Each structure stands twice: as C-alpha cells, then as structure tokens.
Amino acid sequence: AMTSPNPHAMLKVLDDTQDRQEVVARVQRRMLQSIARRIREEISDEDIVRRIFMELDADGSGALDYAEIEHILLKLNIKLDFRHFRLLMRELQGYEADGRITEASLCHFLFPPQSLTASEDHLQRLRHELAQHEAAMQLLHQEIASTEKHLHARKVSLMMTMTDTLSRMNDFDDV
To answer: CA within 20 to 30 Å of 131's CA: 12, 71, 73, 116, which one?
Structure first.
C-alpha cells in the first residue's frame, strides 16, 4: 500500500538553507498571487482601488494602516488568517521605501506590470536560446576552420601535382 508523502519529512530532505528559502519564497509568491487574484475578482480596475483607498484613508495621510487594509478585505468578503494577513502586509509595505501602504503600492500589488514578469521569463528563454545558438555557431566555426584547412591542404596537393605534371610535360617537350 502506498502512503502519501509527509510534508514535514519532505522539508527535512531540504538540508540546504538556500533551497528551503527558495521553496518558502515560491510558496509565499503563489499565496500573494492568489490573494491578489481574489481581490481583483472584486476590484476590476485601478479606478475602483483609488475610490476605495480614498474612502478608507479616513485620516487623509495618503497611506493605509493595518485596520484599513483589514476593512478592505472584510468589505470584499476576503478572510485571511493572521499568517496570510501578515504576509500580505509585508508585501504591501515593501513597495515604498518608508514602508507605508500607499495607493500606488496597493495598485502595484493588485495590478502588477504583468508584461514585466512575462518579459523576464521571455528574456530568460531568449538568453538560453542565445547560449544554444552561440554554442552551435562555435561548432560551425570549428567545422569551417577544419574544412578550410582540409581545402587548403588539398589545394596545395593539387598545385604540387599540377606543377609536377607541367614539369614532366616540359621535360617531354624537350625530348
């Protein structure tokens, strides 16, 4: 009988701290993307975000605090446990140098420049293809150099044969 893998045992396999950090970061990115997607289902564009932001920024500070973000989520009927809420807050605070959650940081989180991510992926694929093409070009250059050496040697050989043949013909004519 096959048993399902134990997630804790699987994490223990990841001895390397960097691997563990990469896995955690990947899971957190997916969680944040999921949260953003759920919010976008309710808020379809940046104009709505601006209106909600202005409505909730009661003190007019130009930034939202934890309670105001929580109010947005409740208003949209999005329930997050404390851990996911804290992850969301850290993400939102990371867009501004001073850690404030501004309208721009909220819009950037909800409507990221998708073309940037797509462009980064596309750029990575292009770099990989370029490396493959460069390797193929290097092989072609080696093959061309080898062929040129072979042709040069063949040319020299033919010239020597022709010179020898002409020399014999001259010797024959002299007779």
So the answer is: 116
